[in-house]
Every structure is written in structure tokens, then in C-alpha cells.
Design goal:
nine-stranded antiparallel sheet; alpha+beta; about 120 residues; single chain
């Protein structure tokens, strides 16, 4: 999947609110139920990262009130050149090919397949 194909496909979930997430270690999957609100039109999306071999969360512990939510502020595919830049940014990036920004935190993932609303793509 090229970077422009990725941006076109996954631009739909940029700035989406995370309603629910699940880590299934037996299936090697991370799944998200996401909600977007474009001009008062609310849509639900299902995102699944499959064949996950690594995930790494970078963020500081903080307290949230009960109305707080998480939002996808970035979702990027990491190519070979990006991995070196990411190493400088995070000081540790063990083979991640996907970067998901969550406000001031990041989830780095190595996955083989990504499924958005039933459409499967290879990374």
C-alpha cells in the first residue's frame, strides 16, 4: 500500500473519537470502534489491525475526568525512511510500520493487515 493510498483510505478516521478498543493477544489483533462527526453527521467505523507482532505505547500518565475521550489525531504508515525519523523522535521504535497519534501520546504498531469497515489492506 502506497502512502497516498493509505491517506485516501484512512483519512476517514482521522480526528475520530475512540468509542471502544480491544487488544486480543490470542488473535494478534487490535481493534477500534471509532466515531466521526462531520457537519453533525455521525458515522461509526470499525478498524482492525491484524497479525500484530509488536505494539508500543508512548505517553505520560495523566488523570482524566469521566467525560474524557481519546481521539485519533494522526494515523501514518511508517516507511523505511520514516522509521529513522521516528527513532529520533521517540528514541525507540522497534520495527513499527504504523503510527497512531492520540493527542499527546502515540501508539506504534507493527501489523501485516489493516481492515477498515470490512475493507482489508496489506501494510
Amino acid at each position: 500500500m502506497t502512502e497516498s493510498e493509505f491517506d485516501t483510505t484512512f483519512g476517514a478516521v482521522w480526528a475520530s473519537k475512540i468509542i471502544r478498543y480491544r487488544l486480543n493477544m490470542l488473535k494478534k489483533e487490535i481493534s477500534f470502534v471509532l466515531e466521526t462527526n462531520d457537519d453533525e453527521v455521525i458515522q461509526t467505523h470499525h478498524l482492525v489491525l491484524k497479525d500484530v507482532s509488536m505494539f508500543y505505547f508512548i505517553g505520560e500518565p495523566r488523570e482524566y475526568d469521566e467525560d474524557a475521550w481519546l481521539e485519533f489525531t494522526e494515523i501514518n504508515i511508517l516507511c523505511a525512511n520514516d522509521i529513522e525519523k521516528a527513532r529520533e523522535k521517540y528514541s525507540f521504535v522497534p520495527c513499527a510500520n504504523l503510527e497512531i497519534g492520540l493527542w499527546d501520546s502515540f501508539l506504534l504498531v507493527n501489523a501485516k493487515t489493516i481492515v477498515l469497515d470490512g475493507t482489508q489492506s496489506q501494510l
